[in-house]
Amino acid sequence: MSRPGARVGVISNPTSGHNRDHFGAVETTLACCPGVIQHAVTATPADIPAALARLADSRVDTLVVNGGDGTVAAVLGAMLEGAAFPRPPAVIILPAGTANMTAGDVGVRGRLRPAVARLCRWATSPAAGQSAGERTQRCLMRLDMNGTRHYGMFLGAGAIIGGTEFAHREIHARGVRDDASLALSTLRTVWGVLRQDPAFSRCSRVSIRSDGAAVREHDALILALSTLQRLSFGMRPFWGEGDGPLRLTVVDRECRRFLPNFIRIIAGRPGRGARPERGYHSTNATELHMDIAGPINLDGEVLTPTGPLVVAATAPVTFLRL
């Protein structure tokens, strides 16, 4: 399907991981597509609603987010909350952040500058745009927490917090990004769990009520919640039944045979060992009421709930992978 006359709007966060190194080149490439690509640069999240309104007034039919996982959640959350677009546009995610977990599942994979060049070819050339790419849908998570509404596509707790702090301190500071950074932090976390290192084996007391079911209590070694199908470096740690877009996995502190089961779980093949009576739980839901004692990772940002939080799935967003 050709794309003559495509109207593309790009929202950029120049302080996102890869943008810090390549934003000048990105701006130059986008500027070579006048009349087809409109570029809005945001300095803070508060700038996003106005940028969306300007692009909507220009009647863009494709919205591109040039930023990291947090920027993606902020832009899409503002799009869903606001009324700028009568009909939400298709969304393209560029791998411009540090971890780029969302881009790895529903966005443009690979390095940032080639991804931007690919976007420009698609937007301007009917010959290059004969294939409109792969369209897929995902919901976002809408979190009501501490009196504030947040949006995201991944939430983690327990040992994930130690891995996140290690990544910020030791991995990202050395310029390692994308799947490599997440693989290294995961390996270090697993090693810490096996050695019972308190910096990596911390647990979170969690109470969970899923879609009105009875409350379940966990001393969670790992809690992972997402609307993505593929997490970093290809992990697929969800095997719950049901149609809900919220995919939740909890590994209890007293789980059995952690290492072999963990390897199978992240590969998407949990096997017979990953059962509730052995400390492994996975479920799908449309709404979760949770009380988590301790910090959470929301799309790479560490936050601390001060009370119960409600997580609900938004309406689906259509993503386009080039």
UniProtKB/TrEMBL annotation:
Gene3D superfamilies: 2.60.200.40, Probable inorganic polyphosphate/atp-NAD kinase, domain 1. SUPFAM superfamilies: NAD kinase/diacylglycerol kinase-like. Residues 3-100 form the DAGKc domain. It holds the Pfam family DAGK_cat. One of its GO terms (molecular function) is kinase activity. It comes from the Bacteria. Keywords: Kinase, Transferase. The keyword Nucleotide-binding does not apply. This is Diacylglycerol kinase family enzyme. It comes from Chromatocurvus halotolerans.
